[in-house]
Amino acid sequence: MGDLVLLSADGSTSTLDLQAAPAYAKPAAPLASRVAYAAAHVVPKPWADNVPGSPADIDWDATLAFRHHVWSWGLGVADAMDTAQRNMGLDARATRDLISRSAAEARSVGGAIVVGVNTDHVDDEVISLDAVIDAYIEQLHFTEDAGAGVVLMASRHLARAATSAADYERVYRAVLAAASTPVVLHWLGAAFDPALAAYFGSTDSAEASETVLRIIDDNADRVSGIKMSLLDADAEVALRSRLPETARMFTGDDFNYVGLIEGDGDAHSDALLGAFAAVAPSASAAIQALDAGDVARYRAVLGPTEELSRQVFAAPTFYYKTGVAFLSWLNGHQPSFTMIGGLHAARSLPHLSEIVRLANASGALERPELAADRWHGLLRLNGFTA
Predict the structure, then answer these.
(1) How far, in Å, are 15, 64, 90, 270, 378 from residue 44 at the CA level?
(2) What's the whole-model pTM score?
(3) CB atoms within 10 A of CB 42
(4) Is a pLDDT exceeding 80 seen at residue 1?
């Protein structure tokens, strides 16, 4: 199919063969063996003032079309999560608009959707525990009214205000009591947000897990699962083994999801992953293989994407959104490689080049010739011959 030009950290270039796109088929029936959500990003207007500190100006047609792309592969959409740049450019007005629009689009096609509920509409950095509860409940009711499922996101406000595990238990008890349907909890590690390093009362994951289990056990009819994003497979498996039958483990481990989703014979994790937004066709094809009982094909399809995901989520991990948007652009899901808050500048060209190489190797380029053309144009724009 032609050559693909790559850029090394020393500025030198090399070429390799551009691979054809895999012939994955969209599912003919709902995915059954795993529950899988792709945490979706937002697409800005390329001509708008989406610079650091400015309110988000979103291209709603492209943003919602991307969600339809995810639904078309049988995956659910997790919206208004950290992948959508919560706390990194997505302001409160845009968050509310995103939730309302995405929930309406989901209803129009029968697509599964959950959205993030947080406290980030409150401008003050430090607030009381009572104010944290009120802020959570305000967003909770807005989301329920919009008709979306709820992921109760980890809150920076709560992390600042809490002085003990008991404070977390108090806040979650009050917020969960206000929920009309069961929600998914959210545990985001320090790699994704350093402000959450001691979430649930401890920097030790085993100790914090005890708090999580108490919250789930004390509110069993209000918690349907937990999304765990610590990039620590052992910690996830340990907590997963102790969850009640009423609560699912949704892996948010973008480094180790292949084995966690496959499971260990006794249990498996379901998925709520930013990585799945970048590789939706592969994720769908892999779960279709599990549905058919073909574990070998599951590993063959999804296994190569894990190295790609590790590059996208490389430290500093919270800039992974840049890689998700970059792959969206390469695959033709948005007209330009731009992001709200100017975050498209958060990764270097050599870093992006490695994403290109791994996407090519793992079958994550949905339209390889378009991807190569766009990537080579970006290289030329920056003074490299391609």
Answers:
(1) 32, 12, 11, 30, 18
(2) 0.97
(3) 28
(4) no
